[in-house]
Amino acid sequence: MKKFGSLMLMIIMLMLTGSAFATSIVIVNGDFETGSDNDAPPSGWTDNSSAPSFWLGVADETGNPTQSEWDSAPSSLGNFILTTARQSAGAGSQPVDGQLIQVVDLSPLATSIDAGAQSLNVDFIWASDDSRDTGAFSLRFFDASDVELGTGYSVALDDGDGYNFVGWFEETVGGLAPVGARSVMLQIDTTRTGGSETNIWIDNISLRNTVSNPSPTGDMVDVMATLSWDAPELIPGATYNVYFGTNEPNFNEPAPYGLTLIGMAGQTATTATPVPSPMQNGTTYHWVVDSLEPNDVAPYTPILHQGSGWSFTAAPLDYPPIVDIPDDADEILTWLAELPESGLSGVIDDNGEVDILEANIEWSVVAYAGEPLDAVAQVIDRSSHLGNVPSGEDPNLLRDWIGSDTRKLGEPLVLTLSGLPAGDYTWASTHYDLENQSGLFSVTVDGVTVGTIGDIGSGADDDPISTFSTTITSDGVNPIELVFDLLPQDQQPDLGNSVYTMFFVMNSFELTDGIDTLKVDFGRDNNPDTGTGATPIASGHDGYLALHEDLTTFTAHSYTLGSATITVLPDWPALLNTTVTKTSTGLSSTAELMTDSTGTFTIQLTATDNGGQSGSDTMTLRVAEDACDAAKINGATVNYYDVDGNCIVDLNDFTSFALEWLKDISLTASVVN
User: How far apart are alpha carbons 215 and 229 in whole angstroms?
Assistant: First the structure.
């Protein structure tokens, strides 16, 4: 797109406040299109630096934006930009500080300035790729005797993001002109604190004389949208021509630039209705608003100020999907033998948008059966204890761990090792925590108990680190499964508040075949003093929720042991054996649940559309041990003759009754021996 305006001058026409006649002020070469590549300084500007600091530049030149960065600018950059990068024409010493100025005559605006009613705002864009290079764009006002008035206005040029190009910044600097002002100095200052050149780029400096705040732009625009804009700040009484269509505007030809005039030529309203309306969903539209300035000179033809081009893609407004699990299906009672439960169903209303993909309809378990603190899989990072470690020990090993906050027998941590070549291996693991966790845990390898892990730490910083070692034999085919489970309560030492203290903790393990060693540290790596960086397994788990509202689990990770690749997968069966699977997709969605746990589950159906809007609904599923328990949950009255309580009256009940029916253990009289 060609840059707007004269290649020599950007003529800005302003109306005096309260007058119907136009006057003009001039910014020279505000778009930096006058001159040739590497001109220093640009025509119309004065470089006050001790040596050249400002040049005209082009894309892909040393120190300048790349072509893709150039093309990403919010408005056309034309042929040249203002650059502070020292290039071939400016090779040599570049000063640390640079200053570029231009003085603009404000005397045509004297009446409105002295009435305290004239604002002056300058728009520009800029970018940088070195946060060490900073600066400011300022407006400084002077009276007729060149005495500075007030403090002026300034905008900082500081992207603050290292050596990264983060895009172009659209800026406005200015405000009310001080009474008595007869000139304004446009001043650009730059400073660098490192490197050999300053890397700041500026373009499209203009007084605000075109419309601003266009709406709509972007994507997902309502097909019934109305075009709107703000009036030019410096053109009182402006009128407008509005051009609209599906072609990208061609500013190398006269209006309508390949578009269509909509509404009335020279309209006074700052809104317009697109044609056609409603627009076509998924179609990209372009529009331009030219400003027309009243002209008191015969033949009184309005002065045209060509506008910028904007675009948007039409689509219905993005409403969240409505997800509903019907009342008659939002609570299900079943039992283990009847699983999987396939009665999970819900309906999704897409609001007529048709922007939901099947992949965006998901069933999930958001609350699990059991007490809140049962069987919680964990990764803990006790960073607050970084300095509280036994002397000489690695803080990574001591403060970060993988574990099982089980609090009850039968919900162990299971570690599966796959890919081990046939042979014997030595296993050594480390177990320590700085809190008051304790307890005894059995270790089984492929179903055979091989030992017990003792005290994992009772809270004292100088507690010894518990280690465990055993021998592992691989057949080269089947994975090795290590199970770490809490010993029964009667085998535990007297721990006081034992429910709170029985945590399983593993900080790391080593596996050795006698030649090569594999070490997996479940904490942080890179820097043991600060704990920065994350091991693959640690980063595979975001933590845990004590109320079982997150089934986040580790994924398998691979490591090298000699020439073999070993896969390590931690697993918590009590949680992982509960799954909900989508069995049917679409706006009527069904699923099924499978679990080996009894209790109450909360199941959630979520639908997310292409615009990222989501809706959800939940249902309750209660799982009983058997049909009898389910019937009792459902409020069934137990038959008096069902002596054994299994909901079946049979000979077993009679046998139980017969054993007791003649037995009389009451004592109603004295007994004489």
Answer: 6
